[in-house]
Amino acid sequence: MEEKLMAINKRLFGTFGVRRTANDVLTPEFASRLAASYGTVFQGKIAIGGDTRTTTHMIKNAIAAGLASAGCDVIDLGILPTPAVQYAVKNYYDGGIIVTASHNPPKYNGIKFVDENGIGLKDEDEIAIEDIYFDKEPKRASWKSIGNLFNNDKIIEEYIDEVLKRVNVEAIKKAKLKVVLDCGSGAGCYTAPYILQRLGCELITLNSQADGFFPGRDPEPIEANLQDLIATVKDLEADIGIAHDGDADRTICIDEKGNFVLGDKSFSLVEKRMLNEKNEEGLHKDANSIIVTTVATSTAIYDIANENNGEVIATAVGDLLVARKLMEENGLFGGEENGGLIFPDFVYGRDAALSAAKILEIMATENKKLSELVAELPVYYSEKMKSECTDDKKQEVMNNIAEEVSKLGYEIDTTDGVKIFKDNGWVIIRPSGTEPIFRCFSESDSQEKATEMAKWGISLIEKFKNQ
Asked: pTM of the entire structure?
């Protein structure tokens, strides 16, 4: 039991990269040395890009210096969504570094590292980089071998074109959908409005001016932060509301009635479409009918796969783990329950732009409202809660919870944290890789049961973290 639960001991890296408060912990010196350590492991042409945060330019310039000092050529892609950087790396470069703190508040920034496939690094690569950063010295090229700096401002255009190639543009244009778009003042401002315009949508924008202070709303697209979007969809009688997070790798939808559509619902909707395309239209011939998701995702994903000749593989939480498994298995589609969907033939990472375009395509080709499409999906009820816990206590808390619930006779899964199967549902208790908290997700056949199980999970965390 303890062996399964044992976390790999990393000194810097979280679930995907490094996030810290900017110019406090995440200083230019920190970023430069870390980038040089990465460049020591990943030599060659390294692409860099970032989101709209006020500190991104500072950190990006420090990263460029660190990479060049390690002898890497640096290709600056500018300010753009995380998946656009991953697309560029997958197709043209030897690695990549993305400056973003995704959904975190504006005082944070972060550094995401990807390999030559555009996928977040393997554990062994992260540990090798940490060893160089803390215990050794990065490679320092001679003055004759310092890396060069190039700019590539064409990737955004190419990325937009490639998104449009993957959906039925004419069908979406014909549907004349009214869309309210909320980019949250993040990197999606540079891509999402232009994609929706080219899809012929009647477009209304909120928070679609790039601004690293995020004045309109918090970057995380949760229901509490999207009240303006919900109100606007209802007031203007729009067909759909679309929201992105800070680095535009996640899409959250609001239906025409103003209802917040949970991420696992949009996952199920697109999963169904992808499997139908493979089964009926003969598309995606090079991929297996494998859907990859995490242990924290809804049972509906399994139901949809069973109904449409698909197979589900579950990983620990983290989009880079889902992406890597998709590549290993030559999978069709994957993602997480938070609105992060992965189309592996395009980008080995969550992609907000293609997710939004695909959902519009489904609405257009099936000639149904979003609420109608969601109503056709398997019905489960969920609850999400969290509890603060210092990083040094997380392992002990997980081990104690696993031991206690096993003694109570419950079936558990320790792929990531502790997933407990109980009362026609489940609850998963797992430590965040980016914050000093535990996350507790539950799912059941009624909202009452789901809420009750989440509260039970939180009570277990509280019991053991205070011992």
From this structure: 0.93
- Tell me how far apart the alpha carbons of residues 38 and 161 are, in angstroms, rounded to a whole number: 31
How high is the pLDDT of residue 413? 92
pLDDT tens figures, 196-208: 999 999 999 999 9
Provide the CA 11 distance to its chain's centre, in angstroms. 22
What is the radius of gyration, based on Cα positions, of the chain?
22
Q: What angle do CA 14, 18, 24 make, to 5 degrees?
A: 130
Instruction: Please state the domain count of the chain.
Output: 4
Give the domain CATH number at 409: 3.30.310.50
pLDDT tier, 6 (very low <50, low <70, confident <90, very high otherwise) = very low
Six-digit token string for 201: 């949508």
* pLDDT at residue 7, as a whole number: 52
| Structural domain that includes position 12 | 2-153
Secondary structure (3-state) at 215: coil
Q: DSSP string covering 98-110, please?
A: EE--TTS-TTEEE
CA distance 213 to 466: 36
Neighbours of 393 (CB within 10 A): 17
DSSP state of 257: T
Tell me, yes or no, whether 303 and 235 share the same domain.
no
Known catalytic residues? 102
The residue written with tokens 């890789």 in the block is 433
Domain final residue pick, 90, 122, 153: 153
pLDDT above 60: residue 1 = no
- Whether the pLDDT of residue 3 is over 80: the answer is no
| 201 shares a domain with 92 | no
Per residue in 35-85, pLDDT (tens digit) is 999 999 999 999 999 999 999 999 999 999 999 999 999 999 999 999 999
Question: Which H/E stretch holds residue 382?
Answer: strand 381-388
Read off the pLDDT of residues 351-363 as tens digits, 9 standing for 90 and up. 999 999 999 999 9
Question: Which token pair is 212?
Answer: 């690293």
- CA–CA separation, 95 vs 213, rounded Å? 29
Count CA atoms within 13 Å of residue 13 on its CB side.
28
CATH code for the domain in which residue 229 is found:
3.40.120.10
Strand stretches in 214-350, DSSP E = 240-244, 251-254, 260-261, 290-294, 311-315, 333-335, 341-342
- State whether 409 and 460 are in the same domain: yes
Last residue of a domain, one of 230, 258, 286: 258
